[in-house]
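Replying to the earlier thread about multi-chain prediction with a worked example.

Input:
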Amino acid sequence: MRNLFRFLTKNSFIFLFLLLEVVAFSLLVQNNNYQSSSFFNSSNFLVGNLYSTVNNINDYFNLKEENQKLAQQNAKLQSTSLSSFMKVFGRLVQINDTTFMQSYVYSSAKVINNSTNKRQNYLTIDKGAINGIEAEMGVISPKGVVGIIKNVSDHFGSVMSVLHEKNKISAKIKKSGYFGSLVWEGGNYREAELKDIPNHVKLVIGDTIVTSGYSSIFPENILIGTIKEFELPKGNNFYNIKVEFTEDYLNVSHVYIIKSLLKEEKKALEKLND
Amino acid sequence: MIRDVIKYFFIFIVLVLTQGLILNNIELGGYINPYLYVLFILLLPFETPPWITLIVAFLLGITIDTFTSTLGVHTSATIFLAFARKYVLKLIEPRGGYEFGTEPNIQYMGLNWFIIYSISLVFLHHFFLFFVESFKFSQFFSTLGRALLSSFFTLVLIFIVQLFNYKPGVRK
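Result:
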């Protein structure tokens, strides 16, 4: 017995080594069988948290790319949404698939220059003729109407902002459907005026103003703003309505360009009347 | 003594995090990984009792394995490294033995000694590691090649780290 102890203590290092190796290999073998139930893997609380923190940090470096991807995806989705289709065959036929025909196409762009403090404000976007952008296309952001393309170069587009005194946008009150035109006459960049709403219409502060779709630059029901205040001047048939924009034009960054597929057809038809 | 423990604890944390968060993402040519964490075992003071070296190696290995979800692979290899260290140290012991209070690094032991020390131990560790990982001898030469190449990169990193800590003129 004593000899055994002496033997053990003399070679304690080697025995400890063998013991630990046996433990390590049994862990190895066991881990191969029960990988998921093991505590010592990277999904445990501590290392998992560490990895997710590092991942979070890494994500910041990809934010730009991600945003671009999302914007593209949104544009794609918008062009498949119902509001960009129109009924072709009227009321009598109501089969969903074949009664709708796409009338608007969306593409995404980034605002690279912007102003709000002039009377005639323009934005510049990073898409141009090469990307199929043409004059008189509509530009919107997720929170509202932005403007209309005025000029395009090969790689850039110049957008006549809603904040441009000569820019008139056909707008309507969403609830009642009465339409007028929205103009901005300088001053506060958060407000514009809605004109030509007749005095018999009932208005409530906070009513939503959307595009009418009559101009065929913008589809119907694109958000513009809400009624901030209104008054009926004496002896006048039309309201003075102040509209607060939903979009803050100071920090527009990603926008969508709307191409109307049926604009030419519509214009040609309306020209016949003149 | 206590100061040494704190110092080595700090080195442990730094090496584990470097290995787990940075070096594990490096895969040169698809299968060459530097394993810098072995430096911790290499740097333990000469006076460390061998059994403590073994226990520390076990802890280090299991921590690294936790990061890579390969339980047992690094653990067994690192224990083997700690085991081999005792005999390698004995083999290359300078005449008159190791001075008390010195550590196995370039600063105290000189470049030649450290090259022999690190090359032999790192290669032993990587050799063991890659064979445990593949768990078969059928692809002997490809595994051997991986061990050699990875050893090379680990050694490069070890020498870079050593150069950062090198203070010329303090003591040879």
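Chain A touches chain B at residues 12-14, 16-17, 20-21, 23-31, 35, 38, 40-44, 46-47, 50, 54 (CB under 8 Å).

Feel free to reuse this layout for your own posts.
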